[in-house]
Amino acid sequence: MRDQAERLRQLAKKNIDDLSRSETRVIAVASGKGGVGKTNFTVNLALALQKAGKKIIVFDADLGMANIDVVLGVVPSFTLTHVIKGQKTLEEIMLDGPEGIKILPGSSGSEELVYLSDQQIQNLIRQWNNLEGEFDYILVDTGAGIHSNVINFLLAADDVVVILTPEPPSITDSYGLIKVLVQRGSTSTIRLVINQVSNEEEGRKIFRRVAKVVDEFLNVKIDLLGIITFDEKVSAAVKRQKPFILEYPNTKASKGIYSIVDNLLNQSPKKAGGGMKKFLLKMIKFFNSSS
Ligand SMILES: Nc1ncnc2c1ncn2[C@@H]1O[C@H](COP(=O)(O)OP(=O)(O)OP(=O)(O)O)[C@@H](O)[C@H]1O
Ligand SMILES: [Mg+2]
Questions:
Q1: Residue 78: helix, strand or coil by DSSP?
Q2: At 156, which CATH number?
Q3: Domain limits at 208?
Q4: 137-141 and 25-30 as β-strands: parallel, antiparallel, unpaired?
Q5: Using CA positions, which residue lies closest to atom 19 of ligand 1?
Q6: Are strands 95-96 and 102-105 parallel, antiparallel or unpaired?
Q7: Residue at 4 is within a domain
């Protein structure tokens, strides 16, 4: 009898402990057209959020392409593929970035998230669960476009941030991306970042245009997360493999990132984040149903 009561007490305590751990919010960064600034945005936002006291992990879901490693000058030796194959633990593949952010190198081909054995799934979930509550945000840097490799990550995220620039193909392709997300039944909150504009007003105009078309044709409301102006310091920082927010904290692009941090921290989310575990389970589900 005593044992039984003790066991119940332990169980209740465990559930309460679990509840009190704050859940990680998953923000995926996407774009219709490539090369618009996703990776720079993700890394610099991660650093600014970390400086604001949040704990951040960046998940590089577009590995194989020149990405986080290039912007930060860190090259991963091991990736999620090694974890899936049981050769490394998640802890072992995570890299330390500046300011205490962590980087999780995704697998070099997302086919690896397809046809996982039950044992591989259990192993991944067990390790992934240890990350729950460790981080306030996981920022997922994805590839451009509407390939299922990308869409599956976006469908699994709590929030999708779509980045676009004033170039017409970028505007059109961002609409195309949002359309695919809506058609696939996305439940993520969709927000726009207009990058490389000449001034705020240009950014607002572009936002209003896209939001109007999305509302009219897809019947979905999207929000503006922020505007970042074109800034030569961005490419100067990229050449030095240093994040611009650390190299040039007072430059225009850094100010754009800081105002986005304010928006993120002050806009109360429309719905609670699903946490790391739900993100992993949804990724596995989407990858295994679209192949
Ligand atoms: N606000 C900005 N001002 C000036 N240049 C910028 C700005 N944002 C991005 N860039 C330029 O755009 C280039 C591409 O950026 P980045 O690699 O972040 O794009 P991406 O969307 O991740 O590309 P890909 O689709 O290939 O992954 C950068 O090297 C930088 O020179
Ligand atoms: Mg990129």
A1: coil
A2: 3.40.50.300
A3: 22-289
A4: parallel
A5: 37
A6: antiparallel
A7: no
Domain assignment of residue 8, yes or no:
no
Pocket test for ligand 1, best of 29, 33, 36, 259 (most atoms within 8 A of CB): 36
Query: β-pairing, 25-30 with 159-164?
Result: parallel
Cβ–Cβ < 8 Å for 32, 177: yes
- Which region among 15-24, 85-94, 185-194, 266-275 has the lowest average model confidence (pLDDT)? 15-24
Pocket lined around ligand 1, Cβ cut-off 6 Å: 31, 34-40, 62, 65, 67, 144, 195-196, 228, 230-231, 234-235, 238, 253
**Biggest alpha carbon–alpha carbon distance for the chain:** 72
pLDDT averaged over every residue in the chain = 88
Structural domain total, the chain: 1
Rounded-to-integer distance, Cα 46 and Cα 50, Å: 6
What does the alpha-carbon distance between residue 89 and residue 163 come to, in Å, rounded to a whole number? Answer: 32
Q: Which of 283, 57, 73, 284 is nearest to 188 (CA)?
A: 283
Give pLDDT tens digits for 192-210.
999 999 999 999 999 999 9
Distance 153 CA to ligand 1 centre (A): 21
User: Mean pLDDT over residues 22-33, rounded?
Assistant: 91
CA of 34 to the centre of ligand 2 (A): 8
Residue 13 in any domain: the answer is: no
| Ligand 1 pocket: which of 146, 234, 255 to mutate (most atoms within 8 A of CB) | 234
For ligand 1, atom 6, name the residue with the nearest CA.
234
